[in-house]
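hiii, so i know i said id send this last week but things got crazy w the move. better late than never?? heres the sequnce for the chain we talked about at the cafe, plus the structure i predicted for it. fair warning i was half asleep when i ran it
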Amino acid sequence: GRLTIPAKFRAPLEDGLVVCNWFTNALSVFPEDEFNALVKKIRPTANRSARHMAFYRILVSGADVQQLDKQGRISIPSGQRGYAGLDRDCVVNGLGERLEVWDATAWDRYNEENLPAFSEMEGASLGIEF
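okay and structure toks below
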């Protein structure tokens, strides 16, 4: 249930972090202030529909506030490990303001399914000029 955060990702997490369930059965690790800003942003949308409220409830109720230990590790609670299918080998991806934690097999499957679309994507469709 312990996960070592790669050293290159630790600095933004030193003042506290939040581990939460995320899309595609992965976990996200946010700096605590970034997670609080996200919650503040989506809180007003929770009353728009039952789906919005469900998302808000699941995101917030399952969030686990933590500190990195001296070895740069965090604990992944059993409920979150079950949600993300984390058994042994994990992949930690840096995504700007947050990290994603994937089961290694699930990450390989995700890449296999999505790399063809990625390679076909044009920068212009994303508003990027190369």
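btw The mean pLDDT is 91. thought thatd interest u
miss u guys!!
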